Amino acid sequence: MEVKRRTAKSLVTKLSSVSELTRTEALCELRLITKHDPDARSLIADAGAIPYLSETLYSSSPDAQENAAVTLLNLSINSKEALMSTRGLLDALSHVLRHHGPSSSTPDAAVQSAAATLHSLLIVDSYRPIIGAKRDIIYALIDIVKCPNSPPRSVKDALKALFGASLYALNRSTMIQFGIVAALFGLILKDGRVGLVEDATAVVAQIAGCEESEEAFRKVSGVGVLVDLLDAATGSSIRIKENSVSALLNLARCGGEGVVEDVRRMGLGVFDGINNVVENGSPKGKNKAMALLNLLDTRGLSSSSDGSNENLFRHSRFDYLLHHSS
């Protein structure tokens, strides 16, 4: 271990060298060590590497940016507190994220690693409000999702970071203000890659749980899209269906009667889709599906007064789903 500690100190010292070649060699070696040697990560962080790596994210050298970003990502696995306590780190990550795209010299791998580093940090509950308060970071992550030229890996890492940020309820209104709802539904409708749609709907489910969500979802016909995802004909994965159910449930709880009626107007197919999650979903997914059915049933019965055959049929259908689901 002492040998590793001395190696870490030597490499970190080289990061401040006036020789660009020396700095580059040290960066490359640090990247490899932090990837393959978990024990060395904390030693490298303790040796003071993070401020140098953070500063290197502003470098005009694409290779240096990439090596620094990947090394920070590796360090975030074991040294989250060290990263978050480094002054200017979040601003440096934001700089990389904001310079994504084909017109920028910032390499895609650096952008992906910066987003992945944020996702890693956002695992810690107490960091979510801190990162969420960096509005430029949230804006940049959403812009990556919106940009048609963003590589799939960058989009996936951005979605994961946005999901982590959305777990803190007070971040959701900022995300909606920056257009996340349109960006997410645009991705869901235009991208056929199951993994990205699963990640996008996971964020949708969280974003739905705030007061501002109803209006934003209505502008993009969000309820209709979520209901379509529950249709067996769309071939959605069970995870996508569970996320759709969770989004509808959160939206109904926050939006009230208007949202509930919007869902019920979609016809009996929506209830079949919810029941499919009750029967085939994960335990958590099943519970949310049952909660959504109960919410629709309770409000539907209490608000119906015309006694039409259609309403009676709907109510009997609810009763069947609620009492005959496995």
TrEMBL record:
SMART domains documented for this protein = ARM
Q: Which residues are in the U-box domain?
A: 12-298
What keywords sit in the KW lines?
Repeat, Ubl conjugation pathway
Family matches, as InterPro entries:
ARM-like, ARM-type_fold, ARM_PUB, Armadillo
Any matching Pfam family: ARM_PUB
PANTHER family xrefs: ARM REPEAT SUPERFAMILY PROTEIN, U BOX DOMAIN-CONTAINING
Can you say what this protein is called? U-box domain-containing protein 11
**UniProt organism field:** Rhodamnia argentea
Q: Which lineage is the organism of this entry classified under, starting from the top rank? A: Eukaryota, Viridiplantae, Streptophyta, Embryophyta, Tracheophyta
